[in-house]
Design goal:
The structure is a single chain. By secondary structure, this protein is mainly alpha-helical. The protein has 2 domains: about 220 residues, Arp2/3 complex 21 kDa subunit ARPC3 (Orthogonal Bundle); about 180 residues, Hypothetical protein af1432. The protein is built from 17 helices and 2 strands. Strand 1 and strand 2 form a beta hairpin.
Length: about 450
């Protein structure tokens, strides 16, 4: 909590205050069996929260708690659903700080209340169901489930946005995963209606009948999260290999990835493409693994043959990663990130809109990080000077729309400049004396190592 901005702290406090208000001001005229139902559904929520699956990247977790709160919205109404959501405080899951646990509790209570209120507004019947409840209840429940998911994601997104400078959000790009989980939550929320329907027949034992499918659902999400972690490990290993080979590019891939995501979000790119361009930024220079180390570390001017070897690195990069299925559109960015708008780039000399969108985005972030990083032949340039160079070459080397988007994102969110590298005495003779991506003009914006 201490690392959050004041705006984020106020946001968390507001969520807790509103959640407490809807519970405190709600009607507590529940019969004894409703209190029993609240306690049982609350226990189901605690089980779900205690077995939450950690997602990757980031520190977010997913649980099937939607099932318990939506069942409560049908069986005991909005306030009862909020009380069930408040059982989040009793979660046995390790990891969340007291502040996170408090926010999660307030968020779940408020989300459950809103979904219950929507269910009532849509003329859904609160209480035990019977044969006559169907199919009329399906429509109100579907709208309530949608409201539950939207409010939940909006509340989480709000605190992440306000805390975007905190450690937990430095590795942004949850878009692709969030979209998948949103639809998953809608599907798993249907279990809530199943519990409510079974309640009439088996009473409080209804949650037990859905525990097995719920845990199967949790297993499926865990496999998805494990797959994402495997993706991250694969990309990270390739980046480390490139940066081990070329000292002056250490951290470059991660910064290009971050800059590309900034542009993508500024232009409104959808979540799954933001995720893909993040991977493209991390792997854009992986083809340098196929370039001889003596060429990358040469201290003099490159020969024509050596420069030709450098120009092959985008195609070598494509050869290395083309069989990695999850990269999709990122492959085009890796292949063409050295093309220029005027057609004078490489490897294929594409021009204008012939250049894939990912490649045009990467080119801007790549050049900017190169200019603001220390090189052996010059120091890092100031951010304002690098922005001026981007604008100078917009329309010639770079797509002007993406330059404008990047500049707007930097002015709003800032840019974390890399620390100057510290070289040992035996490394000073091996660092490159020029920018091998454009040896004829090492001080121009074209440099992009």
């Amino acid at each position: 909590m201490a690392r959050l901005s004041w705006a984020a702290r106020l946001y968390v406090a507001a969520v807790l205050a509103v959640a407490a208000a809807v519970i405190a001001w709600g009607p507590f005229t529940f019969p004894w069996n409703s209190w029993r139902d609240i306690a049982i559904l609350g226990l189901l929520l605690v089980v779900s929260e205690s077995t939450a699956t950690r997602l990757s990247p980031g520190n977010l977790s997913w649980s099937a708690s939607t099932t318990a709160t939506l069942a409560a919205a049908v069986l005991v109404g909005p306030v009862g659903a909020a009380l069930v959501g408040a059982f989040t405080i009793f979660s046995l899951r390790r990891g969340p700080s007291p502040a996170q646990r408090a926010f999660n509790t307030g968020m779940m209570a408020l989300t459950a209340y809103v979904s219950g209120r929507v269910f009532v507004v849509m003329h859904g019947h609160v209480g035990a169901l019977n044969v006559n409840s169907f199919p009329g209840i399906i429509g109100p429940f579907a709208v309530a489930a949608l409201a539950h998911v939207v409010v939940n994601y909006a509340l989480v997104g709000g605190v992440l946005w306000l805390a975007r400078n905190a450690e937990a959000t430095t590795r942004t790009s949850q878009g692709g995963m969030s979209a998948r989980l949103l639809f998953s939550d809608l599907g798993y929320g249907a279990f809530g209606l199943l519990i409510a329907a079974l309640w009439t027949v088996v009473g409080p034992f209804a949650p037990l009948l859905v525990l097995i499918p719920l845990f199967v659902a949790r297993w499926a999400v865990a496999q998805f999260a494990e797959q994402q972690r495997a993706y991250e490990a694969t990309v990270g290993a390739l980046c480390q290999a490139v940066e081990t080979k070329d000292f002056y590019t250490r951290g470059h891939s991660d910064r290009v990835s971050r800059g590309s995501v900034m542009i993508a979000r500024e232009i409104g790119m959808r979540g799954d493409r933001v995720e893909a361009i993040r991977y493209a930024g991390m792997l854009h220079d992986v083809g340098k693994l196929g370039v001889p180390t003596m060429v990358l570390q040469k201290t003099g001017k490159l020969t024509e043959e050596e420069y030709a070897a450098i120009q092959l690195h985008p195609m070598r990069g494509l050869d290395i990663v083309r069989e990695i299925g999850f990269l999709d559109e990122a492959l085009a960015g890796i292949m063409h990130h050295h093309e220029r708008i005027d057609g004078r780039g490489y490897p294929m000399g594409l021009a204008g809109d012939e250049i894939p969108e990912f490649a045009r985005v990467l080119a801007v972030a790549d050049a900017f990080d190169s200019m603001t990083s220390t090189r052996s032949y010059r120091g890092a340039r100031p951010t304002d000077e690098a922005i001026a160079e981007l604008r100078k070459w917009a329309g010639t080397q770079f797509d002007p729309a993406f330059v404008d988007a990047f500049v707007a994102a930097i002015k709003r969110d800032g840019w974390q400049r890399p620390e100057p590298p510290v070289l040992a005495a035996d490394e000073l003779a091996t660092v490159p004396a020029q920018d091998h991506d454009d040896p004829s003009a090492p001080l121009r914006v074209i440099d992009s190592l």
